[in-house]
Amino acid sequence: MEYAVHHVRRPGLTRDLPYGPEDLLWVANTATLVYGERDAVLVDTYATVEQNKALVDWVRSFGRRLTHVFVTHPHGDHLFGIGQVVDAFPGVRAVATKETVAGSVAQVGPEAVGSFWEKLFPGQIPQERPVPETLDDDVIELEGHRLEAIGAGFTDTAGSAVMWVPDLRLLVAGDVAYNDTHQYMAESSTETRAHWAATADRLRELDPVAVVAGHKNPDRADDPAILAETAAYLRDFNDLDARTTTAEELYAAMLDRYPRRANPGSLWGGAKKAKSVS
Ligand SMILES: [Zn+2]
Predict the structure, then answer these.
(1) Which tens digit of pLDDT belongs to each residue from 108-162?
(2) CA 64 to centroid of ligand 1, rounded, Å
(3) Which residue, of 91, 150, 164, 184, is most buried by count of CB atoms within 10 Å of its CB?
(4) Ligand 1 center to residue 113 CA distance, Å?
(5) What is the pTM of this model?
């Protein structure tokens, strides 16, 4: 059994940032293929038709039978491709934890798509957006190896999960871990950020040799140190939130500490949320 990581780069979602490093106004999404001699399991998909076409072509290039696509959390940039994947690979099951399935219903609906995703990616979001089915027992079997879904609660959104592959000591972390990328905090609160940091710390106890983040700097390795980095970023944000008054001050203080992470727009979105600026 082996794994491989695919990525796409796309524009960030928060685009009204006051200032920031111009060369870092992008974010990369990842999808991970875990594969054996004959079969394979895909973790996560992408937002747009074009991105998911590239993903389908990449999965095809491995020449394995895709049995499952697992979605880590109910955000469109991880979820919207499952219709294309199901169409491309007959017999594949699109699955997620019960909590991710619950959150997916609203995310694929006309309101979330019309008021958010279509505005950011006009005409590019798949028309057909199925909801994954609940993964029984939170386990996928791949040629005798166990792939274990572990619920993570509220991280960058509610109903998040990770995929743990014990035989590879591989953690496919979805958005529970970020790799050299500003974290999405526009849905979070002081309390959920503390929970998220504790969750990232708890996952270190699995002692993974590789941790694949849902959003990574493609030039960076899938280093397990990103779990601690993710937790530290959240604690820094909460700390600096308590010591600043405006969204601009909080943004500036965090950017000073993390000047070269990709996607500063995500930080700006989080700072606005923390200071209740719309
Ligand atoms: Zn994401």
Answers:
(1) 999 999 999 999 999 999 999 999 999 999 999 999 999 999 999 999 999 999 9
(2) 26
(3) 184
(4) 15
(5) 0.97
Distance, CA of 233 to CA of 261 (rounded, Å):
11
Q: What is the 213 CA–ligand 1 centroid distance (Å)?
A: 9
CA 81 – CA 47 distance, rounded (Å): 6
Residues with CB under 5 A from ligand 1 (ion): 75, 77, 175, 214
Burial class (CB in 10 A: 0-12, 13-18, 19+), 174: buried
DSSP the chain: -EEEEEEEEEE-S----SS--GGG-EEEEEEEEEE-SSEEEEE---SSHHHHHHHHHHHHTTT-EEEEEE-SSS-HHHHTTHHHHHHHSTT-EEEE-HHHHHHHHHHTSHHHIIIIIHHHSTTTS-S--PPPEE-GGGEEEETTEEEEEEEEESSSSSSEEEEEETTTTEEEEEEEEEESB----TT--HHHHHHHHHHHHHHGGG--SEEEEEEE-TTS---THHHHHHHHHHHHHHHHHHT-SSHHHHHHHHHHHSTT-B-HHHHHHHHHHHTT--
Q: Which domains does the chain have, with CATH numbers?
A: 2-272 (3.60.15.10)
- pLDDT, one tens digit per residue, over 30-69 is 999 999 999 999 999 999 999 999 999 999 999 999 999 9
Q: Cα-Cα-Cα-Cα dihedral of 246, 248, 251, 256, to 10°?
A: -110
